[in-house]
Design brief:
Shape: globular
Radius of gyration: 22 Å
Helix content: 25-40%
Structural class: alpha/beta
Strand order of the largest sheet: 6-5-7-8-10-9
Amino acid sequence: MIIRVLHESMKPSLIFENNKILFFKDINYAFFSISNHSFFSHKFLKVFKNYINKNLEIVVMPYEGQPFQNHLISYLKEKTNVKTIGYIHSPPLAFPSNFVKKKFSPSKIVINGEDQSKCFINHLGWNKKDIRLSESNRFLKKKTNFSKKIFLPLNIDSEDIILNSLRFLMENLGIYLKDFEVKNHPVAKNSKKNIIMIKKINYLIKNQKFIKNSNYKTVAVFIGASGGIIEALERGYKVIQVCEIPIFHAYSNKIWTSIKSKQLTDNIFTYSLVKKGSLIKLGNQPKNLNKFFIN
């Protein structure tokens, strides 16, 4: 069976027209096969099956709740007795809905902070017995500079919100953004939208009057959703977040109890930690994967 790969600019009517035979043949096949995530999931599993044998007992993976990971876990649970362990290596997002407990979630997970454990148990449906706490194997106790940087997100939703919020930081908080470096998201380095945004931000701060507030010497500014907010907090930096969509991007202490937040405007939040090490317990050195084997 052949799926025609269409350009993203083509209208939905053309997508249906070019693949209508699949809708009448098998509606489930049609809907799932036109997704590149689903296509990769099937390809990944086909390759991975070559490594499944009677001697395989445990599969350990960095886990983000991606479709190809869920597809593999679902197969292992249905067809084998292989145990699955997911290592949650990414910093907590405002609401990590990708980790909601499902039938194709890992049998057990390894996380890096007490706050994460509370969130997974109280809000995401996990059992305490299936969670293991361990210091981070990714974020180590080494010097990392977040100070005087403006971090852009992968996707930009509203230029006006971003620029107006940065203007507020300059005019109302006295943050001297001329000293700041604008950091593009590493995956968006060729994004025209992000490149234009960087130019507009630099133009905005170029004409800022000389106003400095000494309370913000070590502040980091994050725009949109970013796990970097949590890493910066754990490393001792003050953090300001510009939220384009606050209901999804802003951190709440009802979910993350060790975060103390303050809302300055509809789109600007400041954060501090009640207790360091609760969100991410920084590691001393990377551990051997055998440390993650849970009986």
